[in-house]
User: Which sequence fits this backbone?
C-alpha cells in the first residue's frame, strides 16, 4: 500500500469521533495513525494510505460524523516531516529563525504545516495538536529568515482561508533558550 497521503477528521463529539474513526477504517485499506480525544472535548482521527483509499476513508468518516464534523482534509503526497513533528520526535540542534502559526483547528493546522515545508526550505520542529491548548493547535519551524517568512506566510494562508488563524510570528534571531523550552 502506498502511504503517501493522509486524511483527518476533527469532530466536536468524542462519541461521534469513535463512530467516524470506525467508519474510516471500515471504508478503505488505510492505516490508523492517530485517533484520540483532544481539548476541549473534541476528537481527531488521522489515517494514512494511498490517495484513493484516504479519500474514501475520510468521506465515510465525514458521513458517519454528520453534524459533529468541525473540519477535515485529505493531503496527497504529504511531506514526511509532518509525522515526526506531530509525534514530537524531531531533532533540532540549533534555532535559526523561528516561525510559529497558531490555529483554532487541528485539521487546518496540519494542512498548514504541510504547506509550510512545501513552500520553503525549513525544518518543522513541532506540530502540537490541541493538548492543553483549549482546542487550538500550533506549528513551529526553523530555517533561514527568508525561508521561515515564506513558510509561515504559506501556512498562515491555509489557516486564514478557513477563518481559523489565531496568530503567526517570525522571530529572526531567537534566543537559544527557546529551543530548550519547546522540546
Assistant:
Amino acid at each position: 500500500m502506498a502511504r503517501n497521503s493522509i486524511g483527518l477528521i476533527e469532530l466536536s463529539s468524542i462519541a461521534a469521533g469513535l463512530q467516524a474513526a470506525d467508519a474510516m477504517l471500515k471504508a478503505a485499506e488505510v492505516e490508523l495513525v492517530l485517533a484520540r480525544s483532544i481539548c476541549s472535548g473534541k476528537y481527531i482521527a488521522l489515517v494514512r494510505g494511498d490517495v484513493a483509499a484516504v479519500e474514501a476513508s475520510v468521506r465515510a468518516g465525514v458521513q458517519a460524523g454528520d453534524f459533529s464534523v468541525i473540519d477535515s482534509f485529505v493531503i496527497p503526497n504529504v511531506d514526511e516531516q509532518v509525522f515526526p513533528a506531530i509525534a514530537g520526535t524531531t531533532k533540532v540542534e540549533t534555532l535559526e529563525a523561528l516561525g510559529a502559526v497558531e490555529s483554532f483547528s487541528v485539521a487546518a493546522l496540519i494542512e498548514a504545516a504541510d504547506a509550510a515545508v512545501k513552500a520553503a526550505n525549513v525544518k518543522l520542529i513541532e506540530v502540537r495538536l490541541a493538548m492543553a491548548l483549549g482546542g487550538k493547535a500550533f506549528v513551529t519551524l526553523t530555517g533561514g529568515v527568508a525561508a521561515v517568512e515564506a513558510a509561515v506566510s504559506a501556512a498562515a494562508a491555509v489557516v486564514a482561508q478557513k477563518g481559523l488563524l489565531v496568530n503567526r510570528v517570525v522571530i529572526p534571531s531567537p534566543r537559544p533558550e527557546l529551543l530548550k523550552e519547546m522540546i
